[in-house]
Known about the structure:
This protein is of the alpha+beta class and 144 residues long.
Amino acid sequence: MRRLRGFAVLIFTAVAAALVLCAVTALPDxxxxxxxxxxxxxxxxxxxxxxxxxxxASEAALTRLTLQDVCxxxxxxxxxxxxxxxxxxxxxxxxxxxxxxxxxxxxxxDLPYSVELYEKTINLHICVREDGVTVGSPIIxxxx
Length: 144
């Protein structure tokens, strides 16, 4: 009986360890952007029911895993090599918008979300400001 109980505990421990290992491996891959300092997720399917969920980098993977109906996400960086970042997501700038306090690039890239803007499919928005860079897919919703 003791052997059977010991074997059951061993099997349970091995299965639990495998699940934890799978979770640690899979959680970061669920994020559209890696290396951000803050993350924001947009949840819902219309502007009426859109909810914004923000968190720190250390909470991002687990927060993303617990959300349903995610329709976009963004990440904030203190600095970002725009050209290198665009290469990493196979991105191409479609058009830009210059404001008093920022430059916004609207791009196509290998990212999961998209919207139509000015008859172009856009799925990456990069906002460069003096105090940092925010990237979003499909666009950065709300203030940035």
